[in-house]
Amino acid sequence: MRLKDFFGLSATQRNQLLLEAIEAQHRYHFERNAAYRQTLTARGIGLRFGSDDLARLLRPAALTFKSYIDHIGPFPQNDPPGFVCWLSDQLSIPLPRERWSAFRRRYRTLEALLCDVERIYADLGLEIVTSTGTSGQASFVARNAATVELAIHAFFTGIRRSWGVERGAALVFVMPQDTRVAMARVARFGTRQLDWAASSPVYYTMPFSATPDQLRIRAGRVFLPGLRGLIERRAIHPFMEWANEHLAAPRYVALTLARLRECARAGQPLMLLGGLVQLHTIARQAKVSLPPGSRVATGGGMKERYPFTPAQIRADLGAAFGNVPVSDVYGMAEANWAAFECPQGNYHVPPWVYAVVTDDNDRIVPGPDATGLLAFFDPVGGGELIPPFFQTADRVRLVNGGGEYDSSLVCSCGYDTAYIVGGIQRVDLVQEAGCAAQI
Amino acid sequence: MFESQMTFEGYWLPKELRERVLDGAMWETSWLKGGMLTPQDDPDAVAVRWPRLAAEQWRVLLEGLQQARTVGGREVLARWQAVLQVARAQLVEHTAEMMSALSTCTGYSPPMLAMALGLGDLISPGSLSAALEFQPTWSAATRWEQMPDLPGRVRFFPQRASDRAIASLRSRSPLCRPAPPLDLAVGYAAGNVPGTALLIALLGGLANYASGNGTPVPAVLIRNSRHEPLFAPWVLSVVEAIDPALVAGLAVLIWDYEDESRQRELMRRAGLMIAAAGDDTIAALEAVRAKSAPDLRFHRHGHKVSFAVIGGRKSKVGGQRSEIALLAALDSSLWDQNGCLSARAHFVAGDADEYAGALVEQMRALSQSLPRGTTPRRLTHRAFDTYAALAGSGQVRVCSTYDDDFAVIVDARMWNAETLRRTVNACQGRVIVVRPVEDVMDVPGVLRWLPPANLQSVSVAMDEARVPEFAEAVGARGVTAVRSLGRAAFPQLAYSWDGLLPLDVGHLRPEGHFTTIEFDDLQQELDETAGRWRP
Questions:
Q1: For residues B326 and B246, what is the distance between their CA atoms, to the nearest angstrom?
Q2: Regarding predicted confidence, which is higher, A4 or B410?
Q3: Region A278-291: what's the mean pLDDT?
Q4: What is the complex's ipTM, to 2 decimals?
Q5: Which residues of A touch B401 (CB under 8 A)?
Q6: Residues in chain A closer than 8 A to B196 (CB atoms)
Q7: Which of A424, B11, B13, B238 stands the most exposed, by the fewest C-beta atoms within 10 Å?
Q8: SS3 letters for B198-212?
Q9: Nearest chain B residue (CA) to A360
Q10: How far is the alpha carbon of A78 from chain B, nearest alpha carbon, in Å?
């Protein structure tokens, strides 16, 4: 079944379909995916599972894709065989072992190792995308051509249906073109695959790369051991902090404003997409009245100690860009979908995703209006590379999620899917602790 | 319905001051559940209120506290001891009504709270007066010393190399000198483990004990935790009914850390500040202190971790290895490892697999008799999943099941600083990593990977003869208390709390930390603790 076919289904129909698809996907991955099988077997789940066991199929997203740290340590480039072995366990397709010898014994950078993984397994179409890695330890999510295509489809279907952004609108991405960060990769591959540039311009206004190594050093939380780590800590990290503020920010601000002004002069509607803080930096520099039909879209990029709230930032963005709609998108590297904010301020989960929330004991919270940690089953759009059943670390209020549906709660925007109401709160373990230390 | 919901008082002011200070006060009401603030519309939450004082009310309070300082010097301790004897019975009378609120508020189960409070006699205020008589010399920096009339031993680990170098040359010189008497001690209590504010109140009140009986106790003002504001007011109200003068100069309130002008004023007035809080909070307090009151003495009790160490065959209790496992299980179950005293990893010299099996049995039994609180089970599940994924290596064994509300894991992999760090962080919410070691003396080498400032206590069951050597080595790494297995959650007030002895509230000394061994006869104490749990 194609993703777009889900839009025509009733909630009952799609939930039934999705539950069947979840069962089928579980069987498929359980037989092929060593990491998934090991986790679920330990939880007491086999090839078949009961309806009460649905929550036990969910693996914590961050934990799953950061589990390499427990196996080989935080620097995969120092142990390529260990990393490939870990990666092989995470996938539901075989990574031919005979090619493992093609890897070098060590790599100078993580990016170099990831490039080699993609090169050596080019015939599988493997792409490694990452989280932004602000914790200093990135999640690595493998995708193949099929899952990339699904992600692209999910993203561009979303912006069209939720925001009305159609082919013909210019796209201005305040992000680097050369990065593994998931959303930026989807944007790059998507615009290329859909040949978006044939009908309207596509711009990337961060004119520098953002490799996982660079992101790690810039985050300033994890450094290599030894002398190289000392240099990273004492020299490169401070320099990057300085350069970001004094070199990079002025450049991407100038480049973005130049592109926006070009579009404004040409009367070309556009979608401007970037992180909250980056867009705010631009908005505070100059005002550009964007043409009618344009939209500003924010996605992530909020800093812990930024002195403005998201609401203030959005108000500033609206004022700076001619009061065009400002909307947010919620996504993560581990998900092959994104939730787009509607005019009512709700985040709509695509209809092909079976979303639930779980309580503090990892049980699915019943009811059509439930609060807990967001978890999702993406049996149709998640691809066949990784079991697409994940629990996030984001606490949300979810309406009409899972098998629970109340027609009186359908979002007044008219888009009849599960949706997230209000903000998304990242759950912090430390908040739950008393005087016990987290080291 | 919420307007009629009972609202608890989350503050304490002495009776004489209450009306004057609260006249026209604004009130802040919070709803607490599971140690967290929750929205008002949660019907299961406990409503707690406290006053928000205006400048004039602060003035009245601080003046009033000063005027109420009557009891002097060491007399204060004798009166506390007398009062607590009586108060314990009265507190038990009111336990039923308070326990439910305390349980909802903190998230700890009523049986756990009842057990912790019921075994309060394991914490002996009587030994505190003996501890205050201790006058250490520099010889404590070179060898273990006995504290008069107290079991156990104490050792001082100077921080500066120069102090370590000259310690033996000055062995008969006093290590400490009396601190100038002070008018006000300020305390900060955080977290949701009950009792911290009371402990600070008691210690703060002793700050002038070295100045003689003619010097009144300082006024004590405590900024309590929003996450557990009930316990201290409850106990203090009972104490006041018995001996009002004893607590007439004491107040427990809640104000905002961000109220920097208030913080500055209090720090300028105070002579001693005691904080048991997170490292970030302590750093913030330190920043204000450095700017506003650099001479203010600051006793910091930041984030800590503790461990259990189980030695060889001779450490069986009453011939029963399972009782060792029971005692160890207690050390990791009380407060669900949210407290700094809870044992995280258990280092085991001997058959770690057999030990882990016995530990699982005891943890299951405790799940019934001492149910875990609201600490999310997902923390336990995360640890379970993490280690289950490592089981393929053959060096990790998950001994519990996913449905247990705890996790016991044997981890025999090669460890480094990163694995230890991740282990420590995983061990919260009744997660125990059993670490096989060849010998108990391997443990200090492992602990070197952790920041010394984050180390706290080690509860032990080992051959008696190995204890001094072991304590010496872990003390040098930063561990400040060695106590018997099963008593991790019952720290003795007379001994080192994060490197500070009770005498430190009234004295000045070189930088460094005290480490104490809290027993004379380990076997006897293990037997005694286990005896409390035998049917």
A1: 39
A2: B410
A3: 93
A4: 0.90
A5: 44
A6: 435
A7: A424
A8: HHHHHHHHCCCHHHC
A9: B376
A10: 15
Largest CA distance in chain A: 62
CB contact under 8 A, A42 and B391: yes
Q: What is the pLDDT of residue A301?
A: 61
Residues of chain B above pLDDT 90, percent: 66
For the domain spanning B305-533, the CATH number is: 3.40.309.10
Work out the average pLDDT over A316-328.
93
Options 3.40.605.10, 3.40.50.10320, 3.40.50.2000, 2.40.128.90; CATH of B50-131+177-301 = 3.40.605.10
Across B467-494, average pLDDT? 93
Residue B194 identity (one-letter amino acid): P
Can you tell me the distance from the alpha carbon of A349 to that of A3, in angstroms, rounded to the nearest whole number? 13
Query: Could you tell me if residue A26 is left (phi over 0), alpha (psi between -120 and 50 degrees) or otherwise beta?
Result: alpha
Closest approach of chain B CAs to the CA of A436, in angstroms? 4
Tell me the pLDDT tens digit for each residue of B167-181. 989 989 999 999 999
Closest CA to B276 of A429, A432, A436: A436
Contacts of residue B277 in chain A, CB cutoff 8 Å?
435
CB of A202 within 8 A of CB of A190? no
CATH class of the structural domain A146-331: alpha beta
Other CB atoms within a 10 A radius of the CB of residue A420 amount to 23
Per DSSP, which regions of A241-314 are E strands? 270-274, 295-298
Which residues of chain B does A436 touch, with a Cβ-Cβ cutoff of 8 Å? 303-305, 337-340, 342, 428
For chain B, the domains span 50-131+177-301, 305-533
Cβ separation B376–A44 shorter than 8 A: no
Chain B residue closest in CA terms to A41 = B388
Predicted pLDDT at A422: 83
Q: Is there a contact between B422 and A429 if contact means CB atoms under 8 Å apart?
A: no
Calculate ∠ Cα A141-A146-A152, nearest 5°: 80
Residue tagged 């007398």 (tokens): B82
- Per cent of chain A over pLDDT 90 is 62
CB A151 within 8 A of CB A336: yes
Residue pointed to by tokens 């109340």: A406
Closest approach of chain A CAs to the CA of B373, in angstroms?
12
DSSP state, residue B257:
T
Q: Could you state, in order of their start, the residue ranges of all structural domains in chain A?
A: 1-55+342-439, 58-112, 146-331
Residue A403 is classified by DSSP as T
B382 and B434 Cβ atoms separated by less than 8 Å: no
Contact of A362 with chain B, judged by CB distance below 8 Å, is answered with yes
CB contact under 8 A, B303 and A70: no
In tens, the pLDDT along A358-410 reads 999 999 999 999 999 999 999 998 888 999 999 998 899 999 998 889 999 99
Residues of B in contact with A35 (CB under 8 A): 389
**Contact assessment for residue B497 and residue B472, using Cβ atoms and an 8 Å cutoff:** no
Hey, do B50-131+177-301 and B305-533 end up sharing a CATH topology, with the first three levels equal? no
Rounded to 10 degrees, the C-alpha dihedral A69/A75/A81/A85 comes to 30
pTM of the model: 0.90
* pLDDT, mean over chain A: 90
CA-wise closest residue to A100 among A115, A77, A116, A76: A116
Check residues A116 and B374 and name the one with the higher pLDDT: A116
Q: Give CA–CA dist B8/A425, Å, rounded.
A: 29
With contact defined as beta carbons under 8 Å apart, do A52 and A71 qualify?
A: no
Check whether B122 has a pLDDT greater than 60.
no
CB contact under 8 A, A435 and B388: no
- Per CB-CB distance under 8 Å, the chain B contacts of A358 are 378
